[in-house]
Amino acid sequence: MIGRHEHLRPSPTGFHEGELAVQHRAGVSTQAARFEGMLDPGELSGGLAQFLSARTFAAITARDTDGRLWTTALTGAPGFLAAATSTTLTIDDSPALGDPLHRLAPGQPVGLLVIDFATRRRVRINGTLTSATDSRLSIDVEQAYGNCPQYIQHREVGTENDGTVNTGSSSDIRRGQSAAAADLDLIRTADTFLVGSTHPIRGTDTSHRGGPPGFVRVEGPRNLWWPDYPGNNMFNTLGNFEVDPEAALLFIDFDTGRYLHVSGSVQTEWSAKPAMPGDDGHTGRRTVVTIEQVVSRATALRSGSVDPYPRNPPVTD
Q1: Element holding 26 (H helix, E strand)
Q2: pTM of model > 0.70
C-alpha cells in the first residue's frame, strides 16, 4: 500500500499554505507572487516537449510499497522521455531491483525533475503515476515549468552501457537506518543532490540543490544540513516541508556511479541573528535532516570533468 496520501490527488491552484507561510517569513511575498502563474496546469507542447525528448537524465520522487518517500534517478537514450499527449509523459525506464522505488505502485502523486547538467537547464513535472511496469512509467501531468540555472554544476552525464543506469548486483547494495562512513564521505564531497518533498493535497515534488563541495554538512551518521541559497522565492520545497516534514535525498558519486538514497525528516531552522554559522547564502535559513533509512548502491552512471556554477557561494565554516 502507498500510505496515508494514496487517495489524494494533486490539485495545483497557486501557492499552498506552506509556500505562503515561508514566503511571508522570508519577506518575499510580493516577489513570489509574480511567479504564481507558473503553478497553473501545464502542457507538454512546443519547446518543452522538444526539451524532454532530447534529455537523458531525470529524478523522480515517490513512495515505496511501505509508504516511505524516496528519490531516485531515471536514465536512457534521447527519446526515453516522451510527451505522448499534451498531458501525458511516458518514461522508458523504471526503478530496477535494489532501488528503493522498485515496483512503483500507480495511482500515487509523483514529482519529476528533468535536468540537463551540460546546459544547466531543468524542468519540473508534477502529477500522478498512472501506470508502471518493469520498463516503462506513465505520468498524468498537472504541473510543468522550468527553473533557472542557478547552482547547477556543468558536467556531461552518461552511462557505461546502453543507457540503463540500474545495473548494480545485489552484492553492491547496502541498506541501513544510518549512514556508513563511505556514505558520509560521499555527502561531504557532494556538489549536487536531488531532494524530494510532498504535500498532502498538492502532491509530490523533486528539486535540485547544488553548491561547492562541502556545502552539505554532516553531523554524525544520522544528521546532516545545508544552508539555503537565494533563489526564485517560490519556496516549493521549503513550503512542502512546512506542512509535511518528510524528505527524500539522492546523492550521486559522479566518478563511480554510486547512489546514496536518504529518507528522513526535516526541520527548517531560521536564524534570529543577522547570520548563523555556515549561512553561506546569507539567507538566515538552513535545512536540517534526520536520517531514518539509507540505501547505497552501485550504478553505471558516470560523468566527465565538472565546471562549477560560477556564482556558488563559498563554504564559510
Answers
A1: helix 17-26
A2: yes
